[in-house]
Amino acid sequence: MPPVNAAMRCASFEERRDLALALFAEKGFGQVSMRELAAHVGLTAGSLYHHFPSKQDLLYDLIEELYEELQATLELGRRAMARGGSTLSCLIAAHWQLHAERPLQFRLAERDFCCLSEEQQGRLVSLRKRYEAGLLRLIAPQAKLPGQALVATAHVVATLLNQLPGMLKALPQKQGLALMESMLVGGIERTLR
Fold first, then answer.
1. Taking the domains of the chain in order of start, what are their residue ranges?
2. Going along 26-79, which residue ranges are E strands?
3. 56 CB burial (10 A radius; 0-12, 13-18, 19+)
4. DSSP 3-state helix, strand, coil percentages of the chain (rounded to 5)?
5. Structure confidence by residue, pLDDT tens digits, 106-142
6. Do domains 1-51 and 56-192 have the same CATH topology?
């Protein structure tokens, strides 16, 4: 049998990860056993345990990956700012695109976060706070709200950026992006400026 090249292994891993993601999203994390998950992705339970010590570890990796992608959207915003473009428009478009590419990960991050261990939840909360703080520095660097109000505002803006694309997906992209921008700009201007 010829050796499997690295690209094929990666493609196979990505496909299996996507199958696991779809199963969790469809049935709910708590309703999927490790044995069922292994069969669904085409592995034995032992092989799956070799890659992930538990279902929670797999779920954590899927949600952590989403937060890494969200952090990457901030870099797109920084580049737009450096070019003199609209940072908020760029961030809205990046979040819309990310939601289109990874809707199931957004669903898991919201619905199944509570299924993770306290330690895993703590690490993800730290990632989310870092993302929210970076987001607020980009869109409202001069914000003068007191500490907790500023943290709450960052959380609300991030939540809107992450949930509005799913709520507006029935609209054509151009119309959905315009509506998101209108809602966010209006709220941000009244709250932060």
1. 1-51, 56-192
2. none
3. middle
4. 80, 0, 20
5. 999 999 999 999 999 999 999 999 999 999 888 888 7
6. no
Backbone phi and psi for residue 30, each to the nearest 5 degrees, phi listed first: -70, -15
Other CB atoms within 10 A of residue 163 CB: 14
Nearest Cα to 106, choosing from 159, 147, 153? 159
pTM for the whole structure? 0.84
Nearest-angstrom CA–CA distance, 133 and 128: 9
Q: What is the CATH number of domain 1-51?
A: 1.10.10.60
Whether 140 contacts 61, CB under 8 Å: no
H-run or E-run covering 34: helix 34-41
CATH T-level assignment (fold) for domain 56-192: Tetracycline Repressor; domain 2 (1.10.357)
